Amino acid sequence: MENMDYVVMLRESLEKKADVLRVLNIRNKEQEAILKDPNSTPDDLEKNMNMKSELIERIIMLDDGFEQLFNRVKAIIEADRDTYADEIRLMQELIKKVTALTADVEASEYRNKEYAKTRFANVKKEIREIKKSSDVVSSYYKHMMSPQTTADPAFLDKKK
User: Fold this and answer.
1) pLDDT (0 to 100) of residue 19
2) How would DSSP label each residue in 77-129?
3) Can you spell out the DSSP letters for 119-144?
């Protein structure tokens, strides 16, 4: 394989990573909507998180492949920068885009984490309230059904 082909592969790897990061950003916006929607289900959230997990795995694979390929051609590129100048310029622009997209993804992940904390705290609170209500009802029924509830009247009419 010609050296220029390796350099083109590096650029294409960065383009693919940028595309995956864009899709990940879309999935983060969907996750935000799910977390904000009180009618969403845990299945909705799980499906979204599974899709995001697949995207993250792709990013890791792309990063690993890029790094291995770059280590192979680094010396070649540095030795003849003029030949690869256009590709290097394109890769530098792509790296800036990837960096900006990564920052966007990280920011939306942080926001989603905060939304999730709030959502789960509200769910916990609702569960506690339901449990408390259930305990009160249970206690009431136990008390009403116990034989001691048929106690004698507290006041007797002694005039008779």
Assistant:
1) 97
2) HHHTTTTTHHHHHHHHHHHHHHHHHHHHHHHHHHHHHHHHHHHHHHHHHHHHH
3) HHHHHHHHHHHHHHHHHHHHHHHHHH
**Regions of the chain short of the pLDDT cut 50:** none
The pLDDT value recorded for residue 9 is 94
* DSSP 8-class letter at 159: T
Give the pTM. Answer: 0.76
Q: Which pLDDT belongs to residue 43?
A: 94
34 close to 48: Cβ distance less than 8 angstroms: yes
User: Who contacts 87 (Cβ-Cβ below 8 Å, separation ≥6)?
Assistant: 4, 7, 8, 10, 11
Q: How long is the chain?
A: 160
Amino acid (1-letter code) at residue 69 = L
Q: Which conformational region is residue 30 in: left (phi greater than 0), alpha (psi within -120 to 50 degrees), or beta?
A: alpha
The secondary structure of the chain in percent helix, strand, coil, rounded to multiples of 5, reads 85, 0, 15
Tell me, what's the pLDDT at 20? 97
CB-based contacts of 101, cutoff 8 Å, min separation 6: 18, 21, 22, 25
Contact 23, 55 (CB under 8 A): yes
